[in-house]
Structure formats: structure tokens, C-alpha cells
Amino acid sequence: MPTPTPRPTPHRLARAALLAVAGTCAALPALAQEVELFERARFKGVKLKLTADTPDVAAYGLGNRIASIVVKSGDWEFCTAPRYGGACITVGPGRYADLPPALHGNLASIRRADGGAGAPPPAPATAGTAAPGVSDAVVLYEHIDFKGRSFGLSSSIARLDEKGFNDTASSVLVQRGRWQLCEHADFSGQCIVLGPGRHTLGGNANDLLSSIRPVFGRDNRPLPASGGLVLHEQADYSGRSMLLTEPTANLKSMGMNDKASSVEVLAGQWEVCTDADYRGRCVLLNPGHYQLDGALDKRLSSMRPR
Fold first, then answer.
1. CB–CB of 231/263 below 8 Å?
2. pTM of the shown model
């Protein structure tokens, strides 16, 4: 999991973040991650092996020439513009013999989607521990041992007091994505960023959180004003995923047309439609997580913020 970095000025929340890292990462070796890029489809032609973030693939002589990929380990984000810009898609281990049209010959930068650290899977629930639902991206717990009252979420919450969980969390389970946790409402005060894993907010950080939101990119940027949503290939919010923060009139060029079975709206209100150009059957989705029904499952082709 990504290591929370304290601010330069010592603060109770930042200091406690170090304690959380020590408690959750002890004796966990870093997992090497590796991806192989090929010049031609079906793993032919020149091969380039990478184990680290690469802001410009052209520097290795394969700019605009990649047609197939093997992801040996880890989750990787592939983008059509240098420095992780343009359209991006996240994929896990597997052999991809022919890239989707949006990436074929257009792959410009790649990076490890989880920050490069192998995050341990959530420990199974034990007696007296509330078992988190797979649909919740984050679960806040009342006590430091992941017990007591719990509150699950998959979208931004600017004021936890409105949810009855302000200054209450003592431990946090992050199941997907990276999340910024702040001591004051509206994402103000001192904040830390946590990635997938089990985190104990000990010391003075106990019972301090008042707002929480997802962040993206290597620099942990908050979502734009229009919000964002994540498409998942599987109904349990697993498989290939894609973060969208701008109107997308046709998913075909991005390799996710008619692929999504579940959706997480991280912030904002989004219209999702079964046909390109925002046609066909369309529904409005508010922040939250959704398993798509038969009329929408594997049928989404376009979406836009409203």
C-alpha cells in the first residue's frame, strides 16, 4: 500500500499516520511488478520490459509502436499521452494480444496503478468484526481493531457529521483506490492519503476524521468539479476498471464499450447510456456504487456529468 507521507510540520494526524504504516506493513516485503510491451500484435516484434513508472515510452524507442502487452504482476495504468495524460485504462495481470483501438499505436506512458507497493488483501472478518461489503471502497471503523460501528462508502463525503460518523473513525479498511482523509469538514485541515490495506489510526489521530474523498494520479489530485466515475468489468467491482472525469460519447475507442457490469460514482451526478452519443436507455446516477441490472449490464456505451 502507498505510504502516507506526513506534512513537514509535525502534527498529530501526520504522526499517527506513521504509526498506521508501522502496524500494517511490518514484515511485508515489497512485491516486484513487471510489464512487457511488444511492437506488434500477439507478442511479436521488439519487446520492452518495464518495472517502473514510465512517463514517456518514446524515450525507449517504442513511441506509438506498441500493439500488445503482457502484465506479469501488479495493476498498471496505460495512457495515450505522455506523463499519464489523455485516455487511461487500468488492467491487471494477463496477456493482451491486441490492444483496443484507443491504445493500439497510441500508448505513450504507463505507471503502476497502486503506487508500486503490493497491498495485502483485507484480512477475513473475525467474530465481533463487521464484515465489509465488497461494494464499499472504504470502510471506517469505530475502534482501532476494526470493530464497533462501521460506515462504508464509495464516494466523496465532505461532512461526516451528516452521516453520524464525525470524529469517530479509529481504523480504516481501503478496498479500492486511494483516499484522502482530513481532520476538518470540506477536506480542510491536515490530511493523509491511504491506499488499499488495513490502517489503524492510533495515537492522536484517533477519532479525528471529518471528511474523506478519492484522489487519483501519482500526485494524488482530487477529482474535478464535475466529479468522476469508475467503470468495472465485473459485477463485484473487480476486473478491468476505467476512471472517467470527462464526457465520453463513445467507449468503443477506449476498449470498454459494452463491458461494464458495475459502476462507482465517486462524485457528481452522471448520466450513463446504452448507446453512443448519450442515446438509448439513459439513467442518472448519484454518488454511490451500482451493480448494473439486465437492461444496463454489459451495455454502457456513453456517459457524461450533468
1. yes
2. 0.56
